[in-house]
Amino acid sequence: MPVSCTPTSTYGLVIGWGEAATKILISYGQRRSVARSRRRNARLTMAGDIMPPVLMYHSVAPQRRDPAPWTVSPKRFDQQMRWLSRRGRTGVSMRELLEARRNGSRRDLVGLTFDDGYADFAEYALPVLQRYGFTATVFVIAGRLGGYNTWVEGARKPLMTAGQLRQLAAGKIEIGSHGLHHVSLLSVTDADLSGEIEMSRRVLQEVSDQDVPGFCYPYGEHDGRVISAVQAAGYDYCCAVGYSEFTGRYALPRIDIVDSDSWPFLWAKGTHYWLRWEYRGPGSRFLVSASRLRAGL
Ligand SMILES: [Zn+2]
Questions:
Q1: In this predicted model, what pLDDT tens digit does every residue of 154-186 receive, in sequence order?
Q2: pLDDT digits (tens, 9 = 90+) for 45-97
Q3: Which of 186, 257, 288, 296 is most exposed, with minimal Cβ within 10 Å?
Q4: CB 163: neighbour CB atoms within 10 A?
Protein backbone atom coordinates (compact mmCIF):
# COMPACT_ATOMS: atom_id res chain seq x y z
CA MET A 1 0.00 0.00 0.00
CA PRO A 2 1.14 3.28 -0.88
CA VAL A 3 3.08 5.23 1.31
CA SER A 4 0.83 5.01 1.57
CA CYS A 5 1.85 6.55 -1.21
CA THR A 6 2.01 3.50 -3.28
CA PRO A 7 -0.99 3.64 -5.55
CA THR A 8 -3.12 0.58 -5.89
CA SER A 9 -2.17 0.39 -9.54
CA THR A 10 1.46 0.01 -8.59
CA TYR A 11 0.79 -3.11 -6.63
CA GLY A 12 0.76 -5.09 -9.84
CA LEU A 13 4.25 -3.88 -10.68
CA VAL A 14 5.49 -4.47 -7.19
CA ILE A 15 3.91 -7.88 -6.99
CA GLY A 16 5.30 -8.72 -10.43
CA TRP A 17 8.75 -7.78 -9.26
CA GLY A 18 8.12 -9.78 -6.12
CA GLU A 19 7.20 -12.87 -8.12
CA ALA A 20 10.38 -12.64 -10.15
CA ALA A 21 12.41 -12.29 -6.99
CA THR A 22 10.53 -15.21 -5.51
CA LYS A 23 11.60 -17.58 -8.31
CA ILE A 24 15.21 -16.73 -7.66
CA LEU A 25 14.89 -17.07 -3.93
CA ILE A 26 13.01 -20.34 -4.11
CA SER A 27 15.99 -21.81 -5.93
CA TYR A 28 17.91 -21.28 -2.70
CA GLY A 29 15.40 -23.31 -0.74
CA GLN A 30 13.49 -20.54 1.01
CA ARG A 31 10.82 -22.26 3.01
CA ARG A 32 12.47 -21.79 6.36
CA SER A 33 13.47 -18.21 5.71
CA VAL A 34 9.91 -17.35 4.66
CA ALA A 35 8.64 -18.62 7.98
CA ARG A 36 11.29 -16.59 9.78
CA SER A 37 10.43 -13.49 7.77
CA ARG A 38 6.80 -13.75 8.77
CA ARG A 39 7.75 -13.98 12.41
CA ARG A 40 10.06 -11.01 12.00
CA ASN A 41 7.46 -8.85 10.29
CA ALA A 42 4.93 -9.79 12.94
CA ARG A 43 7.34 -8.45 15.52
CA LEU A 44 7.70 -5.18 13.63
CA THR A 45 4.00 -4.47 13.41
CA MET A 46 1.73 -2.90 15.97
CA ALA A 47 -0.26 -5.48 17.84
CA GLY A 48 -2.30 -7.31 15.30
CA ASP A 49 -2.03 -4.75 12.50
CA ILE A 50 0.40 -3.27 10.06
CA MET A 51 2.25 -0.02 10.71
CA PRO A 52 0.28 3.04 9.69
CA PRO A 53 1.99 5.02 6.91
CA VAL A 54 3.02 8.50 8.03
CA LEU A 55 4.73 11.29 6.08
CA MET A 56 7.05 13.71 7.88
CA TYR A 57 7.23 17.35 6.84
CA HIS A 58 8.79 20.37 8.53
CA SER A 59 8.40 23.73 6.79
CA VAL A 60 6.37 24.60 3.70
CA ALA A 61 7.55 27.89 2.22
CA PRO A 62 8.91 29.36 -1.04
CA GLN A 63 12.41 27.96 -1.61
CA ARG A 64 13.98 31.30 -2.43
CA ARG A 65 13.57 32.19 1.21
CA ASP A 66 15.16 29.03 2.55
CA PRO A 67 17.30 26.53 0.65
CA ALA A 68 17.08 23.88 3.41
CA PRO A 69 16.09 20.51 1.89
CA TRP A 70 13.48 19.96 4.58
CA THR A 71 11.65 23.09 3.44
CA VAL A 72 9.15 22.04 0.78
CA SER A 73 7.92 24.69 -1.63
CA PRO A 74 4.15 25.31 -1.73
CA LYS A 75 4.13 24.26 -5.39
CA ARG A 76 5.84 20.94 -4.65
CA PHE A 77 3.63 20.37 -1.61
CA ASP A 78 0.55 20.89 -3.78
CA GLN A 79 1.92 18.38 -6.31
CA GLN A 80 2.52 15.83 -3.58
CA MET A 81 -0.96 16.20 -2.07
CA ARG A 82 -2.55 16.08 -5.54
CA TRP A 83 -0.64 12.89 -6.29
CA LEU A 84 -1.97 11.28 -3.13
CA SER A 85 -5.50 12.51 -3.77
CA ARG A 86 -5.60 11.25 -7.37
CA ARG A 87 -4.66 7.83 -6.12
CA GLY A 88 -7.54 7.74 -3.73
CA ARG A 89 -5.49 8.48 -0.63
CA THR A 90 -6.60 10.86 2.10
CA GLY A 91 -4.11 12.72 4.27
CA VAL A 92 -5.21 12.77 7.90
CA SER A 93 -3.95 13.68 11.36
CA MET A 94 -2.35 11.00 13.51
CA ARG A 95 -5.36 11.04 15.79
CA GLU A 96 -7.65 10.20 12.85
CA LEU A 97 -5.24 7.66 11.41
CA LEU A 98 -4.92 5.70 14.65
CA GLU A 99 -8.65 5.94 15.35
CA ALA A 100 -9.42 4.60 11.88
CA ARG A 101 -6.88 1.85 12.42
CA ARG A 102 -8.60 0.86 15.64
CA ASN A 103 -11.87 0.68 13.71
CA GLY A 104 -10.29 -1.35 10.95
CA SER A 105 -10.92 1.33 8.32
CA ARG A 106 -7.46 2.78 7.72
CA ARG A 107 -6.98 1.39 4.24
CA ASP A 108 -6.68 4.54 2.16
CA LEU A 109 -5.36 6.91 4.80
CA VAL A 110 -1.95 8.51 5.05
CA GLY A 111 -0.77 10.27 8.21
CA LEU A 112 0.52 13.81 7.57
CA THR A 113 2.81 15.32 10.21
CA PHE A 114 4.65 18.64 10.43
CA ASP A 115 7.47 18.92 12.97
CA ASP A 116 8.55 22.04 14.90
CA GLY A 117 5.40 24.14 14.42
CA TYR A 118 6.70 26.59 11.82
CA ALA A 119 4.57 29.70 11.39
CA ASP A 120 4.49 29.12 7.63
CA PHE A 121 2.15 26.14 8.11
CA ALA A 122 -0.96 28.31 8.24
CA GLU A 123 0.07 30.42 5.25
CA TYR A 124 1.32 27.76 2.84
CA ALA A 125 0.44 24.22 3.96
CA LEU A 126 -3.06 24.67 5.36
CA PRO A 127 -4.66 26.08 2.17
CA VAL A 128 -3.34 23.11 0.19
CA LEU A 129 -4.57 20.61 2.77
CA GLN A 130 -8.01 22.24 2.73
CA ARG A 131 -8.11 22.14 -1.08
CA TYR A 132 -7.88 18.34 -0.99
CA GLY A 133 -9.98 17.84 2.14
CA PHE A 134 -6.95 16.67 4.13
CA THR A 135 -6.04 17.27 7.77
CA ALA A 136 -2.70 16.90 9.58
CA THR A 137 -0.88 16.87 12.91
CA VAL A 138 1.50 19.69 13.82
CA PHE A 139 4.08 18.85 16.50
CA VAL A 140 4.72 22.08 18.36
CA ILE A 141 7.56 23.07 20.72
CA ALA A 142 5.61 24.29 23.75
CA GLY A 143 8.36 26.48 25.19
CA ARG A 144 9.16 28.24 21.91
CA LEU A 145 5.76 29.53 20.80
CA GLY A 146 6.34 32.78 18.89
CA GLY A 147 10.10 32.10 18.85
CA TYR A 148 12.58 30.93 16.23
CA ASN A 149 14.27 27.67 15.20
CA THR A 150 17.51 28.52 16.99
CA TRP A 151 18.45 24.83 17.41
CA VAL A 152 19.36 24.50 13.72
CA GLU A 153 22.11 26.21 11.74
CA GLY A 154 21.08 28.27 8.77
CA ALA A 155 18.11 30.46 8.10
CA ARG A 156 16.07 31.57 11.10
CA LYS A 157 12.40 30.78 10.68
CA PRO A 158 9.57 31.95 12.93
CA LEU A 159 7.53 29.43 14.89
CA MET A 160 3.78 29.75 15.31
CA THR A 161 2.41 31.86 18.13
CA ALA A 162 -0.09 30.75 20.76
CA GLY A 163 -2.80 32.59 18.83
CA GLN A 164 -1.96 30.82 15.57
CA LEU A 165 -1.89 27.48 17.38
CA ARG A 166 -5.33 28.16 18.84
CA GLN A 167 -6.74 28.96 15.40
CA LEU A 168 -5.38 25.74 13.93
CA ALA A 169 -6.70 23.65 16.81
CA ALA A 170 -10.14 25.22 16.33
CA GLY A 171 -10.04 23.86 12.77
CA LYS A 172 -9.31 20.23 12.04
CA ILE A 173 -5.59 20.37 12.70
CA GLU A 174 -4.34 18.19 15.54
CA ILE A 175 -1.77 19.73 17.87
CA GLY A 176 0.91 17.39 19.21
CA SER A 177 3.88 17.99 21.49
CA HIS A 178 7.48 18.21 20.28
CA GLY A 179 8.77 18.90 23.81
CA LEU A 180 9.45 22.18 25.58
CA HIS A 181 12.75 23.30 24.01
CA HIS A 182 13.66 20.89 21.20
CA VAL A 183 16.50 19.11 22.99
CA SER A 184 17.64 15.51 22.71
CA LEU A 185 15.78 13.57 25.40
CA LEU A 186 18.53 10.95 25.66
CA SER A 187 20.85 13.14 27.71
CA VAL A 188 18.52 15.21 29.94
CA THR A 189 18.04 14.57 33.66
CA ASP A 190 14.91 12.82 34.90
CA ALA A 191 13.53 16.16 36.09
CA ASP A 192 14.13 17.81 32.71
CA LEU A 193 12.73 14.78 30.92
CA SER A 194 9.53 15.13 32.90
CA GLY A 195 9.36 18.83 32.05
CA GLU A 196 9.90 18.27 28.35
CA ILE A 197 7.26 15.56 28.18
CA GLU A 198 4.64 16.32 30.83
CA MET A 199 4.87 20.09 31.03
CA SER A 200 4.81 20.53 27.26
CA ARG A 201 1.59 18.53 27.10
CA ARG A 202 -0.02 20.61 29.82
CA VAL A 203 0.99 23.88 28.16
CA LEU A 204 -0.32 22.82 24.75
CA GLN A 205 -3.57 21.47 26.16
CA GLU A 206 -4.15 24.77 27.90
CA VAL A 207 -3.33 26.87 24.84
CA SER A 208 -5.27 24.73 22.36
CA ASP A 209 -8.11 23.88 24.75
CA GLN A 210 -7.90 20.31 23.40
CA ASP A 211 -6.46 17.02 24.47
CA VAL A 212 -2.90 16.46 23.20
CA PRO A 213 -2.58 12.69 22.66
CA GLY A 214 0.61 12.66 20.59
CA PHE A 215 4.30 13.30 21.18
CA CYS A 216 7.11 13.56 18.64
CA TYR A 217 10.70 12.92 19.73
CA PRO A 218 13.07 15.82 18.94
CA TYR A 219 15.61 14.53 16.40
CA GLY A 220 13.66 11.28 16.51
CA GLU A 221 15.80 10.20 19.48
CA HIS A 222 14.31 7.87 22.07
CA ASP A 223 15.19 4.96 24.31
CA GLY A 224 13.47 2.84 26.95
CA ARG A 225 13.62 5.58 29.61
CA VAL A 226 12.08 8.16 27.28
CA ILE A 227 9.32 5.80 26.20
CA SER A 228 8.48 5.00 29.83
CA ALA A 229 8.21 8.74 30.49
CA VAL A 230 5.81 9.42 27.58
CA GLN A 231 3.66 6.48 28.60
CA ALA A 232 3.58 7.72 32.22
CA ALA A 233 2.58 11.19 30.98
CA GLY A 234 -0.50 9.68 29.34
CA TYR A 235 0.34 10.06 25.67
CA ASP A 236 -1.54 7.76 23.32
CA TYR A 237 1.16 7.53 20.64
CA CYS A 238 4.60 8.89 19.71
CA CYS A 239 6.27 9.60 16.39
CA ALA A 240 9.92 8.80 15.72
CA VAL A 241 11.73 8.97 12.40
CA GLY A 242 13.29 5.65 11.46
CA TYR A 243 13.24 2.07 12.62
CA SER A 244 14.45 1.11 16.10
CA GLU A 245 14.10 -1.77 18.49
CA PHE A 246 11.20 0.20 20.01
CA THR A 247 9.25 0.57 16.78
CA GLY A 248 5.55 0.44 17.55
CA ARG A 249 2.83 2.71 18.89
CA TYR A 250 5.32 4.71 20.97
CA ALA A 251 7.92 4.96 18.23
CA LEU A 252 6.08 5.18 14.92
CA PRO A 253 8.47 5.37 11.98
CA ARG A 254 7.81 8.06 9.38
CA ILE A 255 8.73 8.74 5.78
CA ASP A 256 10.83 11.89 5.45
CA ILE A 257 9.58 14.08 2.61
CA VAL A 258 11.79 16.76 1.03
CA ASP A 259 11.40 19.32 -1.73
CA SER A 260 12.99 17.13 -4.38
CA ASP A 261 10.33 14.45 -3.89
CA SER A 262 8.47 14.53 -7.18
CA TRP A 263 5.94 11.74 -7.79
CA PRO A 264 8.49 9.06 -8.82
CA PHE A 265 10.27 9.56 -5.50
CA LEU A 266 7.00 9.39 -3.62
CA TRP A 267 6.19 6.22 -5.48
CA ALA A 268 9.62 4.76 -4.64
CA LYS A 269 9.30 5.71 -0.98
CA GLY A 270 5.81 4.24 -0.91
CA THR A 271 7.02 1.03 -2.47
CA HIS A 272 9.86 0.85 0.03
CA TYR A 273 7.37 1.31 2.84
CA TRP A 274 5.06 -1.35 1.47
CA LEU A 275 7.84 -3.88 0.98
CA ARG A 276 9.21 -3.23 4.41
CA TRP A 277 6.07 -3.14 6.51
CA GLU A 278 3.28 -4.83 4.63
CA TYR A 279 4.69 -7.35 2.22
CA ARG A 280 4.38 -10.83 3.71
CA GLY A 281 5.30 -13.01 0.76
CA PRO A 282 8.35 -15.08 -0.03
CA GLY A 283 11.64 -13.25 0.30
CA SER A 284 10.31 -10.65 2.70
CA ARG A 285 13.04 -11.42 5.22
CA PHE A 286 15.61 -10.60 2.58
CA LEU A 287 13.82 -7.34 1.73
CA VAL A 288 13.58 -6.21 5.35
CA SER A 289 17.24 -6.99 5.90
CA ALA A 290 18.21 -5.09 2.76
CA SER A 291 16.20 -2.04 3.78
CA ARG A 292 17.87 -2.06 7.17
CA LEU A 293 21.28 -2.19 5.54
CA ARG A 294 20.42 0.74 3.29
CA ALA A 295 19.21 2.70 6.29
CA GLY A 296 22.43 1.92 8.17
CA LEU A 297 20.54 0.30 11.02
ZN1 LIG B 1 12.12 18.91 15.40
A1: 788 999 999 999 999 999 899 999 999 999 999
A2: 454 456 778 999 999 999 766 667 789 999 999 999 999 999 999 999 999 99
A3: 296
A4: 11
Residue 182 alpha carbon to ligand 1 centre in Å: 6
CATH architecture assignment, domain 38-259: Alpha-Beta Barrel (3.20)
Q: How close is the Cα of 262 to the center of ligand 1, in Å?
A: 23
* Rounded distance from Cα 104 to ligand 1 centre (Å): 31
Separation of alpha carbons 93 and 14, rounded Å: 28
Radius of gyration of the chain (CA): 19
Task: Please return the burial class of 79, using the count of CB atoms within 10 Å of its CB with bins 0-12, 13-18 and 19+.
Answer: middle
Q: How far apart are CA 14 and CA 277, in angstroms?
A: 14
Question: Where along the chain do its domains lie?
Answer: 38-259
Ligand 1: centre distance to CA 289 (Å) = 28
Are 49 and 269 in contact by the 8 Å Cβ rule? The answer is no
**Cα 219 to ligand 1 centroid, rounded to whole Å:** 6
Pseudo-torsion of CA 149, 257, 289, 226, nearest 10°? 30
pLDDT band at 20 (very low <50, low <70, confident <90, very high): very low
